[in-house]
Structure formats: structure tokens, C-alpha cells
Amino acid sequence: MATGILRLPLRLFTRNAGVTSRNTGLKTSNVSRMTPGRTLVSTSSGAILPKPDKTPFGFFRMTVVVVPFLYVGTLISKNFAALLEEHDIFVPEDDDDDD
After folding, report:
1. From the centroid of its chain, how far is CA 95?
2. Is residue 49 within 8 Å of residue 40, measured between CB atoms?
3. Most exposed residue of 18, 32, 62, 65, measured as fewest CB within 10 angstroms of its CB?
4. For each of the chain's 99 residues, which pLDDT tens digit applies?
């Protein structure tokens, strides 16, 4: 009985896996295009599907993502350090070693 329950989703998946169609039309270079995730590697007959299109992740996109989050992180840490120092939770000691 337990194996029958486990095989049910597999049967449903393999039944729907046979319907695989690819868009063979003209490829557009639309930047806002969504890249669908693909979990299917082969068709129901056993043929291996071709590799999906790879979206390049350029330096500009990486900069647009990384720089704002680094800036926000530094603002949060600076404000939290000021809060700790204000409430005398963590105050750096002044070293007066003028010997």
C-alpha cells in the first residue's frame, strides 16, 4: 500500500512529461524576458532534450544588485554600533598609552 501511494505522483508526473513542446520561433533579446525553470531532462520516449538557453549575468547586473545591498548593510551596522555605544552596551576603550 505504501509503495502504491509513492508511485501515484510518479505516474502523474510521467503522464504529463510526454507533452513537451519548445518554442522554435524567432528568439528575441528582450531583457525583461522570464527564464522558466526546467525540471524535465528527457521525453517519455527517452530522447534527451537540448540544453536550455543560458542568460548571461553581466558585470552591470551584478553591480546593480551588490552595491545597494552593501550600502544598506553598512548603514544598518553603523546605526546599530551607534545604538550600542549610546546605551553603554559596547563602548570602545580609549587607550592612553603615552608613556
Report:
1. 46
2. yes
3. 32
4. 555 555 555 555 555 444 455 555 555 555 555 556 667 888 889 899 998 888 788 899 999 999 999 999 999 999 999 999 999 898 778 776 665
